[in-house]
Amino acid sequence: MAKTGDRARPAAEPALSALDFALDRGSPVPLYHQLAQQLEAAIQRGVLAPGNLLGNEVDLSVRLGLSRPTVRQAIQSLVDKGLLVRRRGVGTQVVHSRVRRPLELSSLYDDLEAAGQGPATLVVRHETVPASPGTAAALGLAEGEEVVLLERLRSTHGQPVALLCNYLPPGLLELDDDRLEATGLYRMMRSAGITLHSARQTVGARSATAQEAARLGEREGAALLTMERTAYDDTGRPVEFGTHIYRASRYSFDFQLLVRP
Amino acid sequence: MAKTGDRARPAAEPALSALDFALDRGSPVPLYHQLAQQLEAAIQRGVLAPGNLLGNEVDLSVRLGLSRPTVRQAIQSLVDKGLLVRRRGVGTQVVHSRVRRPLELSSLYDDLEAAGQGPATLVVRHETVPASPGTAAALGLAEGEEVVLLERLRSTHGQPVALLCNYLPPGLLELDDDRLEATGLYRMMRSAGITLHSARQTVGARSATAQEAARLGEREGAALLTMERTAYDDTGRPVEFGTHIYRASRYSFDFQLLVRP
DNA sequence: GAGTGGTCTAGACCACCTG
DNA sequence: AGGTGGTCTAGACCACTCC
């Protein structure tokens, strides 16, 4: 009951009944996911405005013909995404968001492509070398063991942006230079059945050496953004170690953090 | 045998029965959280070694006298932390070694987390100024509206590390310089009842101006790491806009990413 | 006191992986 | 075929917030 009360309150009323959620029980897509998607769409479209209360979970589950845990699971996934906030004793409301994508294990290639910058990649080196101490430690190999070294120069609009140096465990992946230049390394890994799970990154800065400056089209001593990353697949096996440098004048890392209680 | 094979290994036996989980139903701490904590402790202590299967959820719930959803909730929280991996039809296993230390991604707090190393803060400026266009946009205010400007120099071991420049909405917070120097801005916000929810960050690099170099003890033109951040509370209201610069020779951002399916 | 989310139970069926 | 996690149900009681 109590949902017909049409009083104008400071925190706007649901108006959620206007939304018709279409749940398909025959679909392979889980019900909670269908609901989450449609809620998210409603938020993005502005049907659910920031600050709006969502209406209580019990009513919602009854109206949708779902159990409360299922509805909760849908809501929780949006809370995890930072779109909703729950307050005990109050309700669930849409966050005032300037939200952008939460930092993903970003491949530079994907970032640039998403920005519509038509990335171009040039494979500079691609050979097998003995692992340096640092590389061996990162990849969990013995020092001097062979690793695949991959060095690429990435540009947009004809201007170099980054120099990417990657080390991969031997035999991990079939690397074809042409495909590497047409797509990104992570994309190739994914299509080779390697599912990335996590990565440890260190982002810093330093001045360009003469050689780096020449390759990137900067002046010697120019500020460079550096990133070192070790990526792991879902078994915890290291699959990539990379040291990347970016022209600070043309690139920066942009991401959103969510604070988890 | 060498583990150069592509397969995830057949995986060791649980040995989980050796663990005695002590669950206190009288505690205000939720059961799933108690279980998660004890599982995590077992993993950190190495009782549950990387690659170990956890034993199936049904058995586990029976042995613990919990329902399966409760056990699942505990496991899920560790999966979210990246400590465990689930595979349908296979089981739940501990992620392999290296990935473990989450090094909490909350870059948000690392000003404070570093507190273990006795950081010192000096409030350089603390006054009310009209908002610049960029500041006004970030904080959702009108240009020229008054904001609190806070400039701090942070050092460790007697060496400057960062120059922190923050802008806060007027009247948000009572700022006492002594407390600001004794603790961090975020800690003061929290104790004032402001719960941080998310932040948007941009990390880049640039060369130090003469003035910046002098303040930070670097040479002019030295590489600096820059961060620009807008932080929001749980209603989506901007509560802080900051532009920070760090000595790249003494500071870098270090974090772990998890890939969410 | 009324309403909200937070937690928990005891089942059930299904999809997937491995042998 | 047997075991695993993935999903879902229909209830229950509690803790918290607000009026």
TrEMBL record, chains A, B:
InterPro entries from the UniProt entry: Bact_HTH_transcr_reg, Chorismate_lyase_/UTRA_dom_sf, Tscrpt_reg_HTH_GntR, UTRA, WH-like_DNA-bd_sf, WH_DNA-bd_sf
PROSITE patterns: HTH_GNTR (PS50949)
Domain named HTH gntR-type: residues: 29-97
GO function term, MF aspect, one: DNA binding
Keyword Transferase assigned: no
UniProt entry tagged with the keyword Membrane: no
Keywords carried by this UniProt record: DNA-binding, Transcription, Transcription regulation
PANTHER family: GNTR-FAMILY TRANSCRIPTIONAL REGULATOR, MANNOSYL-D-GLYCERATE TRANSPORT/METABOLISM SYSTEM REPRESSOR MNGR-RELATED
The name this protein goes by in its record: GntR family transcriptional regulator
